[in-house]
Amino acid sequence: MTYSIAQAAERSGLSIDTLRYYERIGLVDPPARDSGGRRSYSDEDLSWLEFLTKLRTTGMPIRLMREYAQLRHKGLATAGRRKQLLYDHRTDVRQRIAELQACLAILDYKITNYADIEAKMAGESLVQEVSA
Fold it and tell me: What's one GO MF term for it (predicted)?
């Protein structure tokens, strides 16, 4: 199946401008062209875009994404380096997750603290109303 750039953008969740940018910097191979000269994306192209989106979402720098894309074109001989890139990035992602979990714990503590304060204040208001 093939997709226009608008369809590829919709399916990938990326903007048309981002698709063109990714093509320009070498993250995405120039897609095939239809008879009218318009870009025509394949299911394989969309799978690659999905992978790139995951890398970007996890915070991989464009520089490393480009290195990975270039290595991909060189074939299986680069599998070790590609694995190492992903391994190193996974370590970074795990560290960021741990940081976020620590931040989440602080937020949970603060929310619980404010809920306790509100409950105490509501209880004091109730006592004052009953006393009146």
Answer: DNA binding
List, in order, residues 6 or more apart from 105 with CB less than 8 Å away: none
Token pair belonging to 74: 């060189």
Say which DSSP state 31 is in.
P
Calculate ∠ Cα 37-41-42, nearest 5°.
135
User: Residues 78-111: pLDDT tens digits?
Assistant: 999 999 999 999 999 999 999 999 999 999 999 9
Structure tokens at 56: 């970007």
* Burial classification of residue 92, based on how many CB atoms lie within 10 Å of its CB (0-12 exposed, 13-18 middle, 19 or more buried): middle
Q: How far apart are CA 1 and CA 107, in angstroms?
A: 46
